[in-house]
Design brief:
39% strand; 8 helices; D-amino Acid Aminotransferase, Chain A, domain 1; mainly beta; elongated; six-stranded mixed β-sheet
Length: 483
Amino acid sequence: MPLDRYRAKREARRTPEPVPDRDSPGTGDHTGADQQGRGETFVVQEHHATALHWDVRLERDGVLVSWAVPKGLPLDPRENHLAKQTEDHPLAYAAFAGTIPKGQYGGGAVTVWDAGTYVLEKWTDREVKVVLSGRRVQGRYVFFRTRGESWMVHRMDGPPEGWSPLPQDLGPMLATAGTMPHDEDRWAFEVKWDGVRAVVRVDGGRVSVRSRNGNDVTASYPELRGLGLQLGSRQALLDGEIVAMTPTGRSDFGTLQARMHVAKPSAALLRSTPVQLVLFDALHVEGRSLLDEPWTERRAVLESLELGGESWQVPEVFRGHGTALLEATRAQGLEGVVAKRCDSTYLPGRRTDCWLKLKHVKRASVVVAGWKPGEGGRAGRIGSLLLGVHAPAGLVYAGHVGTGFSDATLRDLQTRLAVLRRETSPFEGEVPRQYAKDAVWVEPRLVAEVEYTEWTKDDRLRHPSYKGLREDVSPMEVTREQQ
């Protein structure tokens, strides 16, 4: 009987789902072979089970023929989505919304995502072609069998009018070091976060995270998966920053170091060093590119998503009143403020004066070009790192840093630098003799973050202190002008 598999998987007393008796009329068990009651309705249900998916159900022969589609129905005809045929469901299931108890088959929340009617074009054991007319989905689709109960679903029409696919490889827009604008009322101001930039792509409830230089770091931050569950079927490309908080509630780059270089963090590390994703821009949402929209429109779209969770947030922004925010962040010991011109469009991968960073704490990204052996307890190990920045002539010496290291940090640096060793200096120009003597030179591929008091007249860092490595910054980006 058509619904035997359905009933065998469910206990009617323990689930709110409709579970009709075998002899109940209208269950599909007595339809016969004459195709009467074939029906023309369809429903798509969003199902937060063990893995988020969408159940697509077509009424046929008195039952709902069903497929579980992990990423939902595609809108782009250039891509197919996986579909898995499941057991037929009773017609009453088309109106079901509720929570299936944990431990029961399909446990989790179910909502009706869309519903409507369909026109049948073809139905065989291997291929089903339909034209869907719903509130959210319209168009021609084909389900085609690949093997066993595995199918694929393809959109046969072109994409909906005005819809465009999520971009794949956009880099974040970057701010320029500057001073407080005179026309504050034309700018928006945000707290400057002490973390690493992240471009977050959400598609079909799945999250992927890329660093500023395009590396996929999704596996490093598993606590961000819940953002995809919150967005559900909504596609989005978001800009933000990943931060780790101190017990006093301040973001701290040094604390984040424990997570930045770990591909698969342990449960203990997730508990001891949790991260937050701070979201501050929306680049593409629900098939609409926002890159050419002004900041005010992008911010409005971001706020309309109503995002907030244990590991992600959309922090407050201040229109005008930049001077007051700058002073407040100074009093709280925060890094500074980012000013964004309200009419500015989004320029992926470009540094622009439409965004300004106003810093209290002086920070610089520098290239590690070598190291000097230490003395005493550091004999034979790293005593200080030799630092550089890129200039038109090439990499130039910018000073050395010998403080801010823990024993674990020194061991990690020693291992990383050992494989980069080279015989000659990578610097263009001279390095002070006291630092060049006995120096161990390395290929200039690592970027470090340091705090410092000032740049000297000869472009050297005064009193730098090591804060960690930046894997999200390319060495070629590191120039004196961009600090």
